[in-house]
Amino acid sequence: MSKKFRYAATLSLAATFITTLLSTSGSHASAQGFNAPVAIATTFISQPVIQAVAQATPDDTAESLQDAIAASSLANLVENTQAPADLSKELECLAGAIFFEAKSETLAGQLAVGRVIIARSQSGRFPASYCGVVYQPSQFSFIRGRSMPSINRSSRDWQDAVRIAVIADKGTWKSPVEGAMFFHAAHVSPRWGKTRMAKIDGHIFYR
Fold it and tell me: What's the confidence (pLDDT) of residue 146?
């Protein structure tokens, strides 16, 4: 083989080797670019779970709740009020009016009647005593002449009336119609030119 031919063959072999080496290196880089795993950064965000809160109580429900609390408190006060062993004449008249006018009504209704009698006695427009107010002619239908009907003094109704009379007299609990000086049964409609305050149980009260 001639010297020139060997030289050409050597160059050709070197070129082939270099080409193969570059091709292999490029394929490896390509494989790394597409097949190597890629780390993805993640961030965990912690957020509190918010539970729905109940809606505010409607006004009518709130008022009903307040009325229930007031009624319960008045009942407790009545239960814990000591009835005097011997009633004065004035408390006897006040309790009698409460008994006959409102014994079948709630404690609040009984108290309202009692406070009307007290308001009258302090107004200067009516007699200045409980008995004077109760026995004033043509004011209370249960009065016959100058006397009240007989009362079963061992009954719970009378005991409650006495306790309500004590509470009303001391002013330890105000009535829902404080300041009222007139009332009538709800089933009648007198032509009164007075300011109506409220209806409690079977009575309508006016100032």
Answer: 83
Q: In angstroms, what is the C-alpha Rg of the chain?
A: 49
Alpha carbon distance 167, 152 (integer Å): 21
Q: How many helices (H) and strands (E) does the chain have?
A: 6, 3
User: Please, are residues 97 and 168 in contact by the beta-carbon 8 Å criterion?
Assistant: no
Does 131 score more than 70 pLDDT?
yes
Are 118 and 169 in contact by the 8 Å Cβ rule? The answer is yes
- CA-nearest of 68, 154, 65 to 106 is 68
pTM of the model: 0.66
**Distance of alpha carbon 121 from the chain centroid:** 36
Q: Check pLDDT > 70 for residue 26.
A: no
Q: What is the distance between the alpha carbons of residues 126 and 143, in angstroms, rounded to a whole number?
A: 17
Q: Which of 57, 52, 32, 163 is nearest to 107 (CA)?
A: 163
Q: What is the pLDDT of residue 56?
A: 39
